[in-house]
Amino acid sequence: MAEVVIVENKEIAGALVADEIVRLIDTVAEPVLGLATGSTPLPVYEALRGRLSGHDVSHLRGFALDEYVGIDPEHPESYRSVITREVIEPLGLDPALIRVPNGAIETIQHAGDDYDAAIVAAGGVDLQILGIGTDGHIGFNEPGSSFASTTRIKTLTEQTRKDNARFFDSVHDVPQHCITQGLGTILRARHLVLLAFGENKARAVAAALEGPISAMVPASAVQLHAHVTVVLDEAAASELK
Ligand code: F6R
Protein backbone atom coordinates (compact mmCIF):
# COMPACT_ATOMS: atom_id res chain seq x y z
CA MET A 1 0.00 0.00 0.00
CA ALA A 2 1.36 3.38 -0.98
CA GLU A 3 2.05 5.98 1.65
CA VAL A 4 -0.11 8.98 0.70
CA VAL A 5 0.93 12.40 1.99
CA ILE A 6 -1.47 15.31 1.47
CA VAL A 7 0.10 18.73 1.80
CA GLU A 8 -1.12 22.30 1.57
CA ASN A 9 0.69 23.29 -1.59
CA LYS A 10 3.29 22.27 -4.15
CA GLU A 11 6.08 24.15 -2.42
CA ILE A 12 5.69 21.98 0.68
CA ALA A 13 5.52 18.89 -1.54
CA GLY A 14 8.68 19.97 -3.33
CA ALA A 15 10.48 20.52 -0.03
CA LEU A 16 9.46 17.07 1.29
CA VAL A 17 10.70 15.26 -1.78
CA ALA A 18 13.85 17.38 -2.01
CA ASP A 19 14.69 16.44 1.61
CA GLU A 20 14.35 12.77 0.69
CA ILE A 21 16.65 13.24 -2.31
CA VAL A 22 19.26 14.98 -0.16
CA ARG A 23 19.13 12.03 2.26
CA LEU A 24 19.74 9.72 -0.67
CA ILE A 25 22.69 11.80 -1.87
CA ASP A 26 24.19 11.74 1.61
CA THR A 27 23.77 8.03 2.23
CA VAL A 28 24.29 6.26 -1.09
CA ALA A 29 27.76 6.27 -2.67
CA GLU A 30 26.53 6.42 -6.26
CA PRO A 31 22.92 7.58 -6.08
CA VAL A 32 20.66 7.24 -9.10
CA LEU A 33 17.71 9.55 -9.50
CA GLY A 34 14.82 9.00 -11.90
CA LEU A 35 13.83 12.36 -13.34
CA ALA A 36 10.42 13.42 -14.57
CA THR A 37 9.74 16.45 -16.75
CA GLY A 38 6.54 18.47 -17.21
CA SER A 39 5.24 20.93 -14.60
CA THR A 40 4.77 18.61 -11.63
CA PRO A 41 8.41 18.00 -10.56
CA LEU A 42 9.44 21.65 -10.87
CA PRO A 43 8.82 22.46 -7.16
CA VAL A 44 11.12 19.54 -6.28
CA TYR A 45 13.92 20.84 -8.50
CA GLU A 46 13.29 24.34 -7.17
CA ALA A 47 13.54 23.15 -3.55
CA LEU A 48 16.69 21.16 -4.32
CA ARG A 49 18.46 24.34 -5.47
CA GLY A 50 18.47 25.68 -1.95
CA ARG A 51 19.47 22.42 -0.32
CA LEU A 52 22.51 21.11 -2.14
CA SER A 53 25.30 23.36 -0.98
CA GLY A 54 27.65 21.31 1.16
CA HIS A 55 26.39 18.03 -0.35
CA ASP A 56 28.49 16.12 -2.86
CA VAL A 57 26.51 15.72 -6.09
CA SER A 58 29.51 14.79 -8.22
CA HIS A 59 28.43 11.12 -8.34
CA LEU A 60 24.73 11.74 -8.80
CA ARG A 61 23.42 9.90 -11.82
CA GLY A 62 20.06 10.66 -13.39
CA PHE A 63 17.78 9.03 -15.93
CA ALA A 64 14.89 10.98 -17.42
CA LEU A 65 11.65 9.14 -18.01
CA ASP A 66 11.04 10.11 -21.57
CA GLU A 67 11.73 12.21 -24.65
CA TYR A 68 9.82 13.25 -27.73
CA VAL A 69 10.76 11.41 -30.92
CA GLY A 70 12.06 13.37 -33.87
CA ILE A 71 12.49 16.62 -31.95
CA ASP A 72 15.78 18.49 -32.27
CA PRO A 73 17.60 17.95 -28.94
CA GLU A 74 18.32 21.70 -29.02
CA HIS A 75 14.60 22.56 -29.23
CA PRO A 76 13.74 24.39 -26.00
CA GLU A 77 10.97 21.89 -25.22
CA SER A 78 12.92 18.72 -25.92
CA TYR A 79 13.22 16.92 -22.60
CA ARG A 80 17.00 17.00 -23.06
CA SER A 81 16.77 20.84 -23.02
CA VAL A 82 14.30 20.84 -20.13
CA ILE A 83 16.51 18.57 -18.00
CA THR A 84 19.56 20.72 -18.81
CA ARG A 85 17.71 23.93 -17.93
CA GLU A 86 15.78 22.76 -14.86
CA VAL A 87 18.06 20.14 -13.36
CA ILE A 88 21.64 19.88 -14.62
CA GLU A 89 22.56 23.58 -14.69
CA PRO A 90 20.80 24.90 -11.58
CA LEU A 91 21.85 21.91 -9.46
CA GLY A 92 25.41 21.80 -10.78
CA LEU A 93 25.22 18.16 -11.88
CA ASP A 94 27.70 16.46 -14.18
CA PRO A 95 25.95 16.41 -17.61
CA ALA A 96 27.82 13.21 -18.52
CA LEU A 97 25.98 11.39 -15.69
CA ILE A 98 22.48 12.57 -16.59
CA ARG A 99 20.78 10.69 -19.42
CA VAL A 100 17.65 11.36 -21.40
CA PRO A 101 16.31 8.74 -23.84
CA ASN A 102 17.52 9.35 -27.37
CA GLY A 103 14.60 10.40 -29.56
CA ALA A 104 16.59 10.47 -32.82
CA ILE A 105 14.65 8.56 -35.47
CA GLU A 106 17.76 6.90 -36.96
CA THR A 107 18.61 5.02 -33.75
CA ILE A 108 15.15 4.61 -32.26
CA GLN A 109 15.06 0.81 -32.88
CA HIS A 110 17.65 0.06 -30.22
CA ALA A 111 17.54 3.27 -28.18
CA GLY A 112 15.13 1.72 -25.68
CA ASP A 113 17.21 -1.39 -25.01
CA ASP A 114 20.36 0.73 -24.75
CA TYR A 115 18.66 2.97 -22.22
CA ASP A 116 17.42 0.14 -20.01
CA ALA A 117 20.88 -1.45 -20.15
CA ALA A 118 22.41 1.85 -19.00
CA ILE A 119 20.00 1.98 -16.04
CA VAL A 120 20.96 -1.57 -15.06
CA ALA A 121 24.68 -0.76 -15.47
CA ALA A 122 24.23 2.22 -13.12
CA GLY A 123 22.83 -0.13 -10.47
CA GLY A 124 19.16 0.75 -11.00
CA VAL A 125 17.18 3.82 -10.00
CA ASP A 126 17.11 4.55 -6.25
CA LEU A 127 14.32 7.12 -6.30
CA GLN A 128 12.03 7.70 -9.26
CA ILE A 129 10.09 10.97 -9.42
CA LEU A 130 6.78 10.55 -11.24
CA GLY A 131 4.05 12.88 -12.40
CA ILE A 132 0.73 11.57 -13.68
CA GLY A 133 -1.15 12.43 -16.86
CA THR A 134 -4.85 13.32 -16.78
CA ASP A 135 -5.39 10.02 -18.62
CA GLY A 136 -3.49 8.09 -15.95
CA HIS A 137 -0.17 7.77 -17.76
CA ILE A 138 3.20 7.67 -16.01
CA GLY A 139 6.23 8.31 -18.12
CA PHE A 140 4.48 8.42 -21.47
CA ASN A 141 2.94 5.00 -20.97
CA GLU A 142 -0.49 5.76 -22.30
CA PRO A 143 -3.58 3.64 -21.45
CA GLY A 144 -3.15 0.11 -22.76
CA SER A 145 0.57 -0.06 -21.96
CA SER A 146 1.84 -3.40 -20.71
CA PHE A 147 2.97 -3.56 -17.10
CA ALA A 148 5.99 -5.52 -18.35
CA SER A 149 6.96 -2.89 -20.92
CA THR A 150 10.52 -1.66 -21.27
CA THR A 151 11.79 1.58 -22.77
CA ARG A 152 10.34 1.94 -26.25
CA ILE A 153 8.64 4.20 -28.77
CA LYS A 154 4.98 5.08 -28.09
CA THR A 155 2.32 7.20 -29.74
CA LEU A 156 1.03 10.08 -27.63
CA THR A 157 -2.75 10.27 -27.20
CA GLU A 158 -4.65 13.33 -28.39
CA GLN A 159 -5.35 14.13 -24.73
CA THR A 160 -1.66 14.16 -23.83
CA ARG A 161 -0.81 16.26 -26.89
CA LYS A 162 -3.52 18.75 -25.87
CA ASP A 163 -2.26 18.75 -22.27
CA ASN A 164 1.28 19.46 -23.46
CA ALA A 165 0.32 22.04 -26.12
CA ARG A 166 1.02 24.75 -23.52
CA PHE A 167 4.75 24.10 -23.99
CA PHE A 168 4.57 24.59 -27.78
CA ASP A 169 3.17 27.23 -30.18
CA SER A 170 0.16 25.02 -30.89
CA VAL A 171 -1.06 21.46 -30.43
CA HIS A 172 0.06 20.74 -34.01
CA ASP A 173 3.66 21.32 -32.95
CA VAL A 174 3.52 18.70 -30.18
CA PRO A 175 5.32 15.61 -31.48
CA GLN A 176 3.14 12.55 -32.17
CA HIS A 177 5.60 10.04 -30.75
CA CYS A 178 7.85 9.66 -27.77
CA ILE A 179 10.34 7.24 -26.31
CA THR A 180 9.48 6.38 -22.72
CA GLN A 181 10.70 4.15 -19.95
CA GLY A 182 8.26 1.26 -19.81
CA LEU A 183 6.08 0.44 -16.84
CA GLY A 184 8.31 -2.56 -16.20
CA THR A 185 11.35 -0.27 -16.25
CA ILE A 186 9.72 2.18 -13.84
CA LEU A 187 8.63 -0.60 -11.46
CA ARG A 188 12.25 -1.71 -11.10
CA ALA A 189 13.16 1.56 -9.33
CA ARG A 190 13.61 1.01 -5.60
CA HIS A 191 11.38 3.88 -4.45
CA LEU A 192 8.63 5.52 -6.48
CA VAL A 193 7.60 9.06 -5.56
CA LEU A 194 4.45 10.10 -7.39
CA LEU A 195 3.40 13.74 -7.20
CA ALA A 196 0.18 15.36 -8.37
CA PHE A 197 -1.25 18.83 -7.96
CA GLY A 198 -4.56 20.35 -8.95
CA GLU A 199 -8.11 19.24 -9.47
CA ASN A 200 -7.49 18.10 -13.04
CA LYS A 201 -5.36 15.24 -11.66
CA ALA A 202 -7.89 14.11 -9.02
CA ARG A 203 -9.65 11.51 -11.15
CA ALA A 204 -6.44 9.95 -12.43
CA VAL A 205 -4.98 9.85 -8.91
CA ALA A 206 -8.06 8.12 -7.47
CA ALA A 207 -8.15 5.62 -10.33
CA ALA A 208 -4.43 4.91 -9.96
CA LEU A 209 -4.46 4.39 -6.20
CA GLU A 210 -7.93 3.05 -5.46
CA GLY A 211 -9.19 1.64 -8.75
CA PRO A 212 -8.53 -1.81 -10.14
CA ILE A 213 -5.01 -2.49 -11.35
CA SER A 214 -5.49 -2.09 -15.06
CA ALA A 215 -3.45 -1.36 -18.15
CA MET A 216 -6.12 1.22 -18.96
CA VAL A 217 -4.83 3.22 -15.96
CA PRO A 218 -1.06 2.80 -16.35
CA ALA A 219 -0.34 4.56 -13.05
CA SER A 220 -2.28 1.81 -11.23
CA ALA A 221 0.94 -0.20 -11.77
CA VAL A 222 2.29 1.58 -8.69
CA GLN A 223 -0.05 -0.61 -6.61
CA LEU A 224 2.28 -3.50 -7.50
CA HIS A 225 5.32 -1.77 -6.01
CA ALA A 226 6.44 -2.29 -2.42
CA HIS A 227 7.78 1.22 -1.77
CA VAL A 228 5.65 4.06 -3.09
CA THR A 229 5.19 7.54 -1.70
CA VAL A 230 2.43 9.69 -3.16
CA VAL A 231 2.54 13.43 -2.46
CA LEU A 232 -0.62 15.37 -3.33
CA ASP A 233 -2.16 18.74 -2.72
CA GLU A 234 -5.73 18.73 -1.46
CA ALA A 235 -7.22 19.30 -4.91
CA ALA A 236 -5.41 16.30 -6.41
CA ALA A 237 -6.46 14.21 -3.40
CA SER A 238 -10.10 15.33 -3.58
CA GLU A 239 -11.45 12.17 -5.23
CA LEU A 240 -9.73 9.72 -2.90
CA LYS A 241 -12.15 7.86 -0.62
C1 F6R B 1 7.08 13.62 -17.92
C2 F6R B 1 6.21 12.46 -17.84
C3 F6R B 1 4.73 12.59 -17.76
C4 F6R B 1 4.26 13.74 -16.91
C5 F6R B 1 2.75 13.86 -16.98
C6 F6R B 1 2.22 15.01 -16.16
O1 F6R B 1 8.43 13.18 -17.93
O2 F6R B 1 6.70 11.40 -17.86
O3 F6R B 1 4.19 11.39 -17.24
O4 F6R B 1 4.68 13.55 -15.58
O5 F6R B 1 2.36 14.03 -18.30
O6 F6R B 1 2.66 16.21 -16.73
P1 F6R B 1 2.60 17.57 -15.92
O7 F6R B 1 3.47 17.40 -14.75
O8 F6R B 1 3.12 18.60 -16.87
O9 F6R B 1 1.17 17.77 -15.55
TrEMBL record:
A Pfam family matched in the record? Glucosamine_iso
Q: Which domain of life is it from?
A: Bacteria
Is Ribosomal protein tagged as a keyword?
Answer: no
- InterPro entries from the xrefs? Glc/Gal-6P_isomerase, Glucosamine6P_isomerase, Glucosamine6P_isomerase_CS, NagB/RpiA_transferase-like
Q: Which CDD domains match?
A: GlcN6P_deaminase
The answer to keyword Thylakoid applying to this record is no
Any coiled-coil regions, as ranges:
none
List each copy of the Glucosamine/galactosamine-6-phosphate isomerase domain by range. Answer: 15-226
Instruction: Could you list this entry's UniProt keywords, alphabetically sorted.
Output: Carbohydrate metabolism, Hydrolase
> What's the name of the protein?
Glucosamine-6-phosphate deaminase
Q: Which organism is it from?
A: Microbacterium suwonense
Please state the gene responsible for encoding this protein: nagB
